[in-house]
Amino acid sequence: MGNDEITLAGIDGCPYGWILVTHQAGKYAVSIHESFAALMQSNSGLDRVLIDIPIGLSTANYPRTIEKAMRRELGPRSSTVFNAPCRLAVYEKDNERARRLNQQVENKSLSIQSLLIRDKIREVDACLSRGEVGTAILLDIFLDTEYADLPARLQCRRQAGRQAGKTQSHTEAEKTPCSLCWPQGALCPKPFCPVAWSAAIIESHPELCFKYLNGGVVLSKKSKPEGIEERLEILSRYEARVMEIYNQAVKRFKRKEAKRDDIIDAICLCVVNKLAGEDRLKFLADENGVSENGVKIRIGYYDPMG
Known about the structure:
Blueprint: E1 8-14, E2 17-24, E3 27-33, H1 36-41, E4 48-51, H2 66-74, H3 87-90, H4 95-106, H5 112-116, H6 118-128, H7 139-143, H8 145-148, H9 150-164, H10 170-174, H11 194-197, E5 200-203, H12 206-214, H13 225-236, H14 242-252, H15 260-276, E6 281-290, E7 296-302
């Protein structure tokens, strides 16, 4: 089964909201979306997504430790790793109260960078939680080994189509869970949930991906012209169309909508997702493995050296 049969994506936050780069049937596409919910609703055919946002949040009994592993990996570029706010802090809109809550849960305050991404973390977490804080998140259905491989996902989608019969459109059939991923064999009662999406949503980090693509940490800053140039050159070693994809996105989107480094990061995650294929995605794992509500805490990347 080749990559052309599946739809892979990379997502990064941007000033407008979110930037999405997809690869399907040998073609790339770039789009921006005001919210994560809108992005997922208008792209229901995604199979696997790498996204640069924390997934699986700390609580008092399940502290998130993966940032420590990330900093060890990135060494001189460890400053690009921000501590993810704990769950209580993510859902607290006041900055000072959020800092105090995080201090209580994790014994550490929050930097301004962590506070600035809090809204986007909340967007993704709320969607993955079906909008209900504290309920069991269904995301882990698709992150468990049994369901994480792409052939099983396509089998699930085809089975859903057979169950739906001719009474539903192709798009509706794709959103119809089957017994492989929804044991009750019934439609999910919520119209917007990971089962309905049929997509694996996996946390990633562009600088970790660049490290492995480059064979070493990329020291230049991506906010600088030389950093942009170096990362485009690295990606071009693996995908000849990178410059075309990047230049078209730069022409389409204003800087106030998507910054140059946002575009590159989303392209990077999509290319890495494609390179990893069906079974070559690697992971940094959290010491606890999962968050309190059962979501696996891990960061996906691709190592061309195996």
